Amino acid sequence: MKCKLALLAPFMGANFGTLLQAYALSRYLHNQGINCEYIHYTSVRKSNFFERVVKKIHRIINNPHHNKLVEYRGIDDYSFMNKSPYKEWQLIMDAFSKQYIPCSNILYNDLTIRQCNKVYDSFIVGSDQTWSIERNERYALYFLPFAKNNKSLFSYAPSFGTTMLTKYHEGLILKYLPKFAILSCRERKNADSLSRLLRKSVFYVLDPTMLFNKEQWGELSEPVFGLPQKYILVYALGERDAISKFAEYIGEQQNIPVYYILTRPKYETKKNVLSQLNPFQFLFALLHASTIVTDSFHGTLFSINFEKNFYSFYKRDPDVCVLNDNDRMDELLSTFQLQNRLIKDSLYSQNASINYESVRPIVEELRQKSYEYINLIIDFVNTKHE
Question: pTM for the full model?
Fold first, then answer.
């Protein structure tokens, strides 16, 4: 059976947010009767030394705060993934992708990607940081340069990874996005910027993980054995000491243990470590936590979706300006009027528990608008094939 719709977004790797956003978008579309799958893609070759130097210079020139730009190797170095227990965790995450996220049997690359036009009639650029400079600097895959003019192109909640768009971003936007039938973005500020640049409506929609509510995700969660009845859960993708210090402090204040989801070697020596979880076990750990402390976009988003008491941190030191991705947290929290959950200055300040009675209507309104938008895409696809 011919697959009508191709999805383009990261859908593999040792990152819970990446896998669950990919799962959510494909699952929602399948539930609506749409035959879809992710394009399995790999770059033809690695960048050589000269290209990496040019890339670094290019990033400095195009960064609006290039005078602050410094080399920051810490959390962007993933060489530890080649060692245990992370190597085994990668296998677990790959197994999840193969079982739950549909993808093409063909592995495409820069030279063969145009062959997709023979297989698919429509394309959706999905979520995660698909429109970031880092993902499109060498080849603008997620702007669909390979798609023929007779194909229907859409986006669902792609992210630029920052709300500080550069001249380089604008060049990609003006070159490739006018051919998209309808457009959306995961950042409200960027959706407004795109609307002005393209002189057409660009919808602000929620991340695909928000297409499913707490109960629906709960049905998919898988038990993590050995967890106590009450615990504080730390899900940190960065390495800032403030995160663990804060979690340990509130653990002492509430007299409950702190558990760490193992994401980096920094957390291996903690007393209570949850290692090699699959994405559905990750959901279980979040759902049953008393409090969540996180520097992750998706960690924060799931905390809101699950109506948990949580605290968010910037992943990167605010004084280090490399990818400008800290501002994503500001916008996410302000969207749901939860700015006070971001811990910036006072290490040991605690905010009162969240009153979700005021947050819930915002979530439901934005979720409904996201349904309306993705259903527009579904109508486009179905109409094309009547």
Answer: 0.91
